[in-house]
Specification:
- With 256 residues, this protein is of the alpha/beta class.
- The chain is built from 9 helices and 12 strands.
- It has helices at 40-47, 70-74, 92-97, 112-124, 140-153, 170-185, 197-203, 221-224, 227-234; strands at 2-11, 14-24, 29-33, 55-60, 63-64, 77-80, 158-162, 189-194, 206-211, 214-219, 238-243, 248-253.
- Strands 6-7-8-3-9-10 form a 6-stranded mixed β-sheet, with helices on both faces. Strands 2-1-4-5 form a 4-stranded antiparallel β-sheet, covered by helices on one side.
- A hairpin with a 4-residue loop joins strand 11 (238-243) and strand 12.
- Helix 4 crosses helix 5 (140-153).
- It is globular.
Length: 256
């Protein structure tokens, strides 16, 4: 459904990454791991059309999206940022309704169908009870669920999530990752970045390791997340320990 071919990206004449190639099928979760400054956020901004690509192609159902309008691209790709500092006291319902903006014509306001999609997104994320609360007054974990609901209200085929668990406590991290799996089972493709390799074991079908702007590895979690690959990526010794009976592993740094 979605893919990139030999993608190069950066800011102006400054190149951050190049040679990035991958595909993403409907209902698949791809987890992007990499150190700070490795190019994850720049890659995501390029996929979303917020930055012009420097080379390569971005494809949706085999069609190159080059030349698509921002609105057309936004109708297919939803974005969940790692943080959102709202300045105005909008209600949660209104924040989610903003996800319908790409579906509205110039000067048009949201109608019945738009409100139905917003209510459905609130219900899907389990935050209907927050609908009348002020967005700036709810917790960080609740805000993250609302941001996912906002993206979902736009009926995207692909969700791009930039460190969706950043700054969340253990319980809220788990809830967000559980929602990622639920959305994927509903047919939505997800590409998300994280700094925790354990998150890939919990929710990803495949893992991409981005190092110095290039894909160092791409494959299933078990084959991609290894002590050797994590040490190359982060420069620290890591143990990857299987959990008998759970079908996955956990990662732990080895301290000197």
């Amino acid at each position: 459904m979605f893919g990139v071919e030999n993608l190069a990206f950066g800011y102006g004449a400054r190149r951050i990454g190049s040679g990035v190639t991958f595909t993403l099928a409907a209902g698949e979760v791809l987890c992007l791991l990499g150190p700070n400054g490795g190019g994850k956020t720049t890659l995501f901004k390029t996929l979303l059309g917020l930055l012009p690509k420097q080379a390569g192609r971005i494809l949706l159902d085999g069609a190159d999206v080059a030349g698509w309008s921002r609105a057309r691209l936004a109708r297919s790709l939803g974005y969940v940022p790692q943080a959102h500092g709202a300045l105005f006291p909008f209600s949660v319902r209104d924040v989610v309704l903003m996800g319908r903006a790409s579906r509205l014509g110039p000067f048009a306001g949201p109608g019945r169908v738009d409100r139905e999609h917003a209510e459905r997104a609130l219900a899907t994320l389990g935050v209907t009870h927050l609908a009348d609360r002020i967005y700036t007054e709810i917790s960080g974990g609740e805000r993250q669920m609302v941001l996912i609901a906002r993206a979902l209200a736009g009926e995207p085929r692909l969700l791009v999530m930039d460190e969706p668990t950043a700054s969340l406590d253990f319980g809220n991290q788990t809830r967000v990752l559980d929602q990622v799996r639920r959305l994927a089972r509903g047919g939505i493709s997800v590409i998300l970045s994280t700094h925790d390799p354990d998150h890939a074991f919990l929710c990803a079908d495949r893992v991409a390791l981005l190092h110095e702007g290039r894909l160092a590895a791409l494959g299933g979690p078990a084959e991609t997340i290894t002590p050797a690959s994590l040490e190359r990526l982060y420069g620290v010794a890591v143990a990857v320990v299987p959990l008998p009976g759970y079908g996955r592993s956990v990662c732990s740094p080895i301290l000197s």
